[in-house]
Amino acid sequence: MTLFNKQGRTLDRRFFGGLELPPAALQTLGPASILLFVPIYDRLLVPALGHVTGKPSGLTLLQRMGTGMAVSMGAIITAALVEGHRLKTAREHGLVDDSGATVPQYGWVWLVPQYVMMGVADVLAVVGMQEFFYDQMPSELRSLGLALYFSVMGIGGFISSALISFIDHVTRSGGGDGWFADNLNRAHLDYFYWLLAGLSADELVLFLWLASSYAYNKSHKRIQH
């Protein structure tokens, strides 16, 4: 999501007539979305889904995680579409070589959907994963379950950094600007987002295949029924 900041630098960030948001301030849209979605999910979606599925929790833990992964993939696709259109607009207005220019017709609200969807994905997938590791581990190993949860988050961060470094090296090797050029109008974050969307789709298919054969332990069955 830090790459969203780079997109925000090129957009019109004014609101209420004259105040201008710093690009990093847009990061608050993610936590704000989480705060708004948690009560909506708990008070509205869970009872509605419970009525359909017959489960008090509405969705099982794995269903919740899978839904979050799908929403996350949707957020990346949205980011790719927005960035692709932003680059097209920058080229049409001759702003390719002006790294500090504000792209016309593009305000900070264009980034709201991807921030909001990432916040919703966190509520579903990240919180669901934490509950899964805690609930499905034997009671004497629950601390290990939480350790596994944090390990997943940490390993994901390392993989993300390594992927960005590798792609930046490869795309710059021919003497070009690369996908992550400082001048975002010459970069191709949209290509990177599409790559992430493809990886997310593969991961979701793998997750669904593995989850389809998972048997919940007895403690979870008591919670569900």
From TrEMBL:
Transmembrane annotation, as ranges: 21-41, 61-82, 146-167, 191-216
A Pfam cross-reference name: PTR2
GO cellular component: membrane
Bilayer topology term: Multi-pass membrane protein
Keywords assigned by UniProt, alphabetized: Membrane, Transmembrane, Transmembrane helix
Name of the protein in its database record: Uncharacterized protein
Compartments where located: Membrane
Keyword Manganese attached: no
Gene Ontology molecular function terms on file: transmembrane transporter activity
Species classification: Eukaryota, Viridiplantae, Streptophyta, Embryophyta, Tracheophyta
Family that this chain belongs to: Belongs to the major facilitator superfamily. Proton-dependent oligopeptide transporter (POT/PTR) (TC 2.A.17) family.
